[in-house]
Gamma-glutamyl carboxylase (Scleropages formosus), 758 residues
Amino acid sequence: SLRYELNTVVSPQGGSSVQPSKRQRKAASWMKRIFGFEKEDLSSWERLVCLLNRPTDPASLGVFRFLFGLLMALDVTQERGLSHLDYKYLDGAPLCRFPLFNFLEPLPMDWMYFVYLVMFLGAIGIMLGFFYRFSCLMFISTYWYVFFLDKTAWNNHSYLYGLIGFQLTLMDANRYWSIDGLRNPKKRNAHVPLWNYTVVRAQIFIVYFIAGVKKLDADWVEGYSMQYLAHHWLFDPFKLILPVELVSLLVVHGGGLVLDLTAGYLLFFDATRPVAMVFVSYFHCMNSQLFSIGMFAYTMLATSPLFCYPDWPRRFFRHFPACLGVFLPPAAPLPQPSTSCVYPPTPPGDPKDSPGTPKPTKPGRRHTLGALFTFLYVAEQLFLPYSHFITQGYNNWTNGLYGYSWDMMVHSRSHQHVKITYRDGKTGDIGYLNPGVFTQSRRWKDHGDMLKQYATCLSRHLPRYNITDPEIYFDIWVSINERFQQRIFDPRVDIVKAEWSPFRPNPWLMPLLVDLSPWRVKFSEIEGTLDNQTEVVFIADFPGLHLENYVSGDLGNTSVQVLQGQVNVEIVEEKVNYTLHPGDKMKQLPGGAYHKVYTVSEGPSCYMYIYVNTTEAALQRNFTHLLELQEKIRNGTETEPLPPELQPLITGLEDDDSEGNVSDPVLRVFLRRQRRMKERKERREASLPQRIERFVVKKYYMLRRGFLMTAIAMRNLAVGPPPLEQLTQEVAYANMKEPDSKASLDDSLQAEVGHGEL
């Protein structure tokens, strides 16, 4: 992180020239040429302090400050949730929340809007460099409050935003292209100490490198973590020369591993930086399309120029017309001296009394604290991703709270079965709860600390429904990285009374059956033998436990086959038991009925369900018939007269009212699906101006709602809420949708008959 500023030479006019002369480069040692400093700079603490406080051009840091503030202002309205804040924090609603500390509670609704307004104004202040330090405090205080308020929204990039905001609070990033610089000539275009760049560069290096180290996990190297990504259209060019399996293994997993491990190093050196900039830019642009990660891809793009010479904005923007200079970062003059830096003695041969020549200074307390902070912060960031031996209570199948470990995309999960059972502590009555009741999140399924919070919250709400002293049991089946579906928590433990500590291992966490991981190769072979209408689910269970399962009437030819261990299958209604050994198969489990599968072997059992969704298969056959009939009608080859109920096939796509007039449910679903496919085709084939217009309109209405709801909340805090009828009208106005808006394709498909089962 030191490479680029250490070649800075202070000029007699008090400016700086980042690139040394040819004579200086020739005279410099190899270490100076490669790393930017000499071994002697590390020979003592005082020289190290001088090194980290060496005067540096503020231009690159100032541009990054502007971009970060802009992106955070957009993030507040999107991923932080300003545009849907009233749905996230429902006043008076019986919701279960998951704060980091149980004493944290959301403020009343109008005050939460005030918190978000302060966060937004802080981000704008950072962007403009206006009352910079105060703006940073406004942003990070509210940001970390919202962050700690909801663990279910944690992720690596949200954590990174808070870290960068904290770093900027301590830096002099308002010395270039800022309103503070216009207000205070001493701050305008003044040098910043080298550690300002060192800290943020080290942070980005750690994000890349630790993410790469975490991807050395066997699941990632073998290509199981993100198998589904290879089917995305972004990888179509690779699929022209490679099968999809190799695209997943070599491009998605291999390419991601190599890029993360090497990006930080390649960005550091002059010779490799251009290549690194191309690859990391392509990588982040792809991520912006592959994942719903808000401003993360663009934030990482904004950090890449920090690795260039710090005067790059001056050299870049001086090529623009002078008439644009009012709006662009300034190219001149050169930086002026600053008390934040330590200036070396004047080089021999330079006039010591020349105007503007900075006087030599010695490191003071401020400079020492800056150097000390740099070392402590970088050490802490290197330690935290491996600190899970301390916070053992947060360890599940993966270590720690997801967010600060930089294990991005290393683990993918699927949930096959979730059952919540309650038992009345007074009467002994047993009942079941809808999974996710009283909460807006699903992440509690994978984290013991959140499960404990959820159970405690449910125990407070259930007495309102005449359930006294409830005991609550969770039976959660999860597959991680394409393994067997298996239990993650012990279903026999009452989580309300169960012990949990952040510093001790979770006693009711079930172990991940890693010894069964080699079966994943067999899974692919088995799935390859099935037709498109046949589905398979692979199950692993522990000795002494059983799975209670219900076979839907929509599923036909449902069978269970044992792969390993020994099980007893009980048909509940028939009260009949069957014992199955490895290779045994029980065909035609009764539909519309419960059965239980008991693991009776000494070790874990492994078995698989194979089934056909007969309802969906019949629906697809009907769709095929209707599509063929529609094509015959259009090309004039259909000779038989159409029955009255099929007349909408002729105008089904053109007539907007025809769907509501259709009595046949299959035909109605067919017409709806045809309409959605047409809309999707139109969206895919839209021109670039149409796509831009659609994007701008969508974002406009999202921002519009956020700011109108904020204005309503601020009015309520200032003068009190209006009559309910007026408030209802104001909210309805804020909820106005864009013209001709349509429900999303996914929502429409989910409403179709059979799609949920599919």
Observations:
- The chain is about 45% helix and 10% strand.
- The radius of gyration is 31 Å.
- The mean pLDDT is 88.
- The longest strand covers residues 413-423.
